[in-house]
TrEMBL record:
Entry's Gene Ontology molecular function annotations: acetolactate synthase activity; flavin adenine dinucleotide binding; magnesium ion binding; thiamine pyrophosphate binding
Keyword Ribosomal protein included in the entry's annotation: no
Domain Thiamine pyrophosphate enzyme TPP-binding: 400-549
Lineage of producing organism: Bacteria, Bacillati, Actinomycetota, Actinomycetes, Pseudonocardiales
Cofactor list: Mg(2+); thiamine diphosphate
Record-linked InterPro entries: DHS-like_NAD/FAD-binding_dom, THDP-binding, Thiamin_PyroP_enz_cen_dom, Thiamin_PyroP_enz_TPP-bd_dom, TPP-bd_CS, TPP_enz, TPP_enzyme_TPP-bd
Annotated protein name in UniProt: Acetolactate synthase-1/2/3 large subunit
Gene Ontology BP terms: isoleucine biosynthetic process; L-valine biosynthetic process
Signal peptide: none
Pfam families per UniProt: TPP_enzyme_C, TPP_enzyme_M, TPP_enzyme_N
Domain Thiamine pyrophosphate enzyme N-terminal TPP-binding: 17-126
Length: 567
């Protein structure tokens, strides 16, 4: 009788599914939300997220989920997570992953996969996801067994932060995800115990050399790129430029490092500075097309590049000094090293700052009449001027478009660090709505203001309904010229005006009505004096909004007209 009462092996063991292991690993990383579009392959992850207290925001297109994960990472500094089903679910997310790669944004995409028991048999939505994702991620792998589910998630997160941040991808076969294993057999890495600090202050000898260069420079300047925000190095960067009296330009997520009006904050004199400086320090941005591949920097200047990624330093252009490290720690170390000198050179640079400020003021005054223009159709400069005046210190600004956002890059100045979002160097249109989603979810205390081109909004705009459904209000503006105007300009230049409307002309859409149809707030604006009042009403509505502003289709941004692809 005693033998009949014996417990079968494993009978009282606690069992856990692959989906619940994934959720535990997400929780250990500090993830509090996933962005997803449902599919039968992945629903056990949802079940695990419910148990772990992780929110599930379901969208209408997988590209939106991936972009939202990217945006969440930028806003919070934590990795964003998107979960999509196999096959077309995963391929729909490819663009978002690729954008995160070029923007150095740490995110994890989890894709479903057919069951291992049906491997290579032609199961539903079976594709070689890992092979497809390898070129656009820092890490891509299949979870081979349920016991390894949490372990592989943690491994993927670790790779997201190796060097410059970026995306990782995991595919999880359906039977691996749904199966249950004894909890004691599963490896679940503990929070904070499976990856090291990535903050490197750089080579001490290089730090001392850079301090020497700054102290000895008569005409230095610094470009503060996206990695200043990625590393949360704002305070160190600010102290560097103010203590050593170095004029600063900002691009990408580095915008907002210095507030508008700061005497060291410059925007319009960059070309002049790069041609006349004797020391140029490039922090956290590559020598890519935005920098003319390094050719825009004077050949006579001493050039220093600071970056998280060794492979970026000196790529496309020789540098006199390269430092691999955390932007904030490196700049703080240089400030400290230079401050120990009898004379750090800051006083002598007053004349250089005045010279640049004069160039800046001249450029601003030349453009100001267009920013105040009462012309109709509306000059895009007037629209972006009104948006800039509308922003507060708590406004996160998002730009999603071609020509219209190029205008805004010259005029709009975020008032605080981390309050500027754009696609990044991949130039992906359609990031606007998902970035709004991520920003407003992560920072509900912040106002979110987004400027869309009408073409860009069309790509992912139906997830405006998701913003309504999850009560994520924002002030949205569509700069509407019924055209893909950046491309249109290039076609006119290459093929003549008679072929300037081929493949780039859109319908005259009243996007305000679209917003209202989906439960948001909307207005049409054709007179420039009506822009600000419409923005104020959108703010007061407390709803997701679209102010549809009809801008002049025959006016192009200088950045559009200067694009090298058309020359």
């Amino acid at each position: 009788m005693a033998s009949q009462a014996q417990t079968a092996p494993g009978e009282n063991q606690e069992m856990i599914s692959g989906g619940h292991l994934v959720a535990k690993a997400l929780k250990a990383e500090g993830v509090d939300v996933i962005f997803t579009l449902c599919g039968g392959h992945i629903i056990d992850i949802y079940d695990g997220c419910v148990d772990e207290g992780i929110d599930v925001i379901d969208v209408r297109h997988e590209q939106v989920a991936a972009h939202a994960a990217d945006g969440y990472a930028r806003i919070t500094g934590k990795p964003g997570v998107a979960v999509v089903t196999a096959g077309p679910g995963t391929t729909d997310a490819v663009t978002g992953v690729a954008n995160a790669l070029r923007a150095e944004s740490p995110m994890l995409l989890i894709g479903g996969q057919g069951a291992l028991s049906q491997h290579k048999m032609g199961s539903l939505q079976d594709l070689p996801h890992v092979d497809m994702m390898n070129p656009i991620t820092k890490f891509a792998a299949t979870v081979p067994s349920t016991e390894r589910a949490a372990d592989l998630v943690s491994m993927a997160f670790r790779e997201c932060f190796h060097g410059a941040p970026g995306p990782s991808f995991l595919e999880i076969p359906r039977d691996v995800l749904d199966a249950k294993v004894p909890l004691e057999k599963a490896r679940i890495p503990s929070s904070g115990a499976y990856r090291a600090s990535t903050r490197s202050a750089g080579d001490p000898a290089a730090i001392e050399r850079l301090a020497d260069l700054v102290v000895g420079a008569e005409k230095p300047c610094v470009l503060l790129g996206s990695q200043v925000w990625t590393t949360r190095g704002t305070e160190a960067a600010t102290e560097f430029v103010r203590t050593l009296n170095v004029p600063a330009f900002m691009n990408g997520s580095g915008r907002g490092t210095l507030p508008p009006g700061d005497p060291h904050h410059l925007q319009l004199a960059r070309r002049y500075a790069f041609q006349n400086a004797d020391l140029i320090i490039i922090v956290g941005t590559p020598f890519d097309f935005r920098m003319g591949y390094g050719k825009r920097l004077s050949q006579d200047a001493t050039v220093v590049q600071i970056d998280l990624d060794y492979r970026t330093v000196g790529k496309n252009r020789d540098v006199d000094l390269g430092i691999v490290g955390d932007a904030g720690l490196v700049l703080a170390s240089v400030t400290q090293a230079a401050s120990g000198r009898v004379d750090n050179g800051s006083v002598a640079r007053k004349t250089w700052l005045e010279e640049l400020r004069a160039v800046e003021t001249q450029a601003y005054e030349k453009r100001l009449p267009r920013q105040l223009s009462d012309a109709s159709p509306i000059d895009p400069y007037r629209l972006v001027h009104e948006i800039n005046e509308f922003l507060t210190e708590d406004s996160v600004y998002i730009g999603d478009g071609g020509d219209i956002v190029t205008f805004s890059g010259q005029v709009v100045q975020p008032k605080s660090p981390g309050h500027w979002m754009d696609p990044g160097p991949l130039g992906t249109l359609g990031v606007g709505v998902p970035f709004v989603m991520a920003a407003k979810y992560a920072r509900p205390d912040k106002e979110v203001v987004a400027l869309f081109g009408d073409g860009a909004f069309s790509l992912t705009g139906f997830d405006f309904e998701t913003l309504v459904r999850f009560n994520l209000p924002f002030v949205g503006i569509v700069g509407n010229n019924s055209s893909m105007n950046q491309i249109r300009y290039g076609q006119i230049q290459k093929y003549g005006a008679d072929r300037g409307r081929v493949g780039n002309t859109l319908g005259d859409i009243r996007y305000s009505e679209f917003a209202k149809m989906l439960g948001g707030y909307g207005e049409e604006v054709r007179d420039p004096k009506d822009i600000r009042p419409a923005l104020e009403r959108a703010r007061e509505s407390g709803l997701p909004s679209l102010i549809n502003v009809w801008v002049d289709p025959e006016v192009y941004a200088p950045g559009t007209m200067n694009q090298t692809m058309y020359k």
